[in-house]
Write a structure and sequence with these properties.
single chain, 508 residues, alpha/beta, five-stranded parallel beta sheet, 22 helices, 47% helix
Length: 508
């Protein structure tokens, strides 16, 4: 199939330079308004900033925010006039001003500044939790878990960046529908950590550390909706990018609590997107039967195994795990852990299995979870009827994945690993973790330039400009070789080249 001229071309264009433009808005400066006692409670067992830094480093996230404390309303408002902040966290029990009034004063200074209340329970803020207020952006129930701090910060960033990142790089979106601060304060950290750790687990061994950090920016966005109308708006707006919808059963619809709002929402989504993974959550176990009618997966909020249930949903139903080749009757016939294995096994999979997975968007979903958004959307947009038979469909999937793997290696210096080496697409490979050395670094630089500047090739079609396939032994490997064979003295002047060569060739 001619990938340059047919209707299926134009899948690949996300390069490393694109990832750098993602997550433009980050929470860098946080103002914490709290009594001295509550600050002490939050700091107990280690500084709050240290907890957040540990969470960021543990999940390979960059730029942890800096927290500035203010123990009085007067000091907080003065700081807001002097310094730019990206978020305000308020812990109740401030004597000088009512929380709603404080939110109003903050918004007068900066109307776009997120104002979030961290409360030990809803009972501690009865007036705020029952009174709609445009000046308070969110309420979270804080129980001392630093995971919640990371989740609320990243959730705020996701809402700020989702428009640009979906438009720029087709970044995928997870929608969580939950109106209870108790429950979304519990679920957001679980879901967010699952997204980040699963995304990190999928990062290819070929990527260097900087590209891995950039790739993490392309992780799915997690958006929170608290009522039916907001959830529908998010779904309609980001329909093409939705990875899954996770919904409570009972939440506001048309201004009133509707016990069937989640059923209605997921039923609409299922009718509109038949292959999309849907998860219904409820503390009422009888709603499991209603989930079956959608159909959607079901999790009981009262389950003692709640953490594991969410983990299994992400691993088995969102494509984060291995690709499981199945027959229409459910019989499993093979597994693929990565793109290399998927490409290698596709030629041997029965037609019935290929058709089964294509009709249900399983290939698209698996690729979407790996942030291969362009090809995932292309697969989703095509139907089996667009191909003359399953064999043409199979060839298209194989050639698309092969082209994707080639594009992902362009200009990349990958680490050689015996069990993961693919000589067909690896163009520049290194052994060791040290420096490349001057000559190899120059070749790597030229390889990267050629891969990132397609106009060079377009403007000079008569010239074939390429770097030969290259294997580099890094400086740490060379130094180890020299040390183990006691060859250090050859670094001194006075030895002939022939003499050095003979000794080195005899060395182990």
């Amino acid at each position: 199939m001619d990938m340059e001229n047919n209707k299926f071309a134009g899948i690949f264009h996300n390069g490393p330079e694109l990832f750098q433009e993602l997550m433009e808005h980050e929470i860098r400066e946080i103002l914490l308004i709290s009594s001295l006692y509550n600050m002490f409670v939050m700091e107990e067992g280690g500084t709050l900033t240290s907890k957040i830094i540990n969470e960021y480093s543990g999940l390979n996230l960059s730029h942890p925010p800096v927290i500035t404390g203010a123990s009085s309303v007067k000091k907080a408002l003065a700081l807001l006039h002097k310094k730019e902040f990206d978020m305000v966290l308020i812990i109740p029990h401030l004597k000088e001003m009512d929380l709603l009034a404080l939110g109003e004063e903050i918004k007068k200074i900066n109307p776009t500044l997120p104002v979030i209340i961290l409360a030990p329970s809803l009972r501690s803020i009865p007036h705020v939790s029952t009174t709609p207020c445009k000046d308070i952006d969110n309420i979270y129930i804080w129980s001392g878990n630093s995971d919640l701090l990371l989740a609320l910060i990243k959730n705020a960033e996701d809402h700020l960046n989702v428009d640009k990142d979906t438009a720029l790089a087709n970044v995928s979106v997870v929608i969580l529908v939950e109106d209870s601060p108790d429950y979304y304060s519990f679920f957001l950290p679980i879901i967010y950590k699952e997204i980040v750790t699963q995304t990190e687990a999928l990062l290819t061994r070929d990527l260097n550390d900087s590209l891995k950090l950039l790739k993490m920016r392309e992780r799915p966005k997690l958006l929170l909706a608290k009522n039916y109308e907001c959830a529908m708006e998010l779904y309609q707006k980001y329909r093409s990018y939705i990875l899954c919808v996770i919904s409570d059963t009972r939440f506001p619809r048309n201004g009133e609590i509707d016990p069937g709002a989640g059923i209605a929402l997921l039923s609409h989504v299922r009718g509109d997107s038949p292959g999309l993974p849907l998860l219904l959550m409820s503390s009422e176990s009888e709603n499991r039967k209603k989930a079956d009618t959608i159909p959607a997966l079901f999790i009981d909020k009262n389950s003692a195994d709640l953490f594991n249930a969410v983990h299994i949903f992400f691993l088995n139903h969102l494509g984060f795990g291995k690709f499981v080749f199945s027959m229409p009757n459910g019989q499993q016939i093979d597994l693929a852990a990565n793109l290399l294995q998927l490409e290698a096994k596709l030629p041997h999979i029965p037609d019935e299995s290929i058709a089964f997975h294509a009709d249900r968007d399983h290939f698209s979903r698996w690729l979407m979870a790996r942030s291969e958004i362009d090809i995932a959307l292309k697969f989703r947009s095509l139907k089996r009827s667009d191909f003359k038979d399953v064999e043409e469909l199979r060839s298209f999937i194989i050639s698309s994945i092969h082209e994707l793997r080639i594009q992902r290696q362009k200009g990349l210096v990958s680490r050689f690993e015996r069990n993961y080496f693919d000589s067909d697409i690896r163009e520049f490979v290194k052994i060791g973790d040290g420096s490349l050395g001057g000559k190899a670094r120059g070749l790597a630089f030229m390889s990267t330039l050629l891969s990132q500047n397609s106009k060079i090739h377009q403007n000079n079609p008569e010239i074939n400009i390429k770097i030969p396939k290259t294997l580099v032994l890094c400086t740490d490997i060379f130094e180890s070789f020299v040390a183990e064979n006691n060859l250090q003295f050859f670094s001194k002047p006075g030895f002939k080249v022939k003499e050095i060569v003979e000794v080195f060739l005899r060395a182990e």
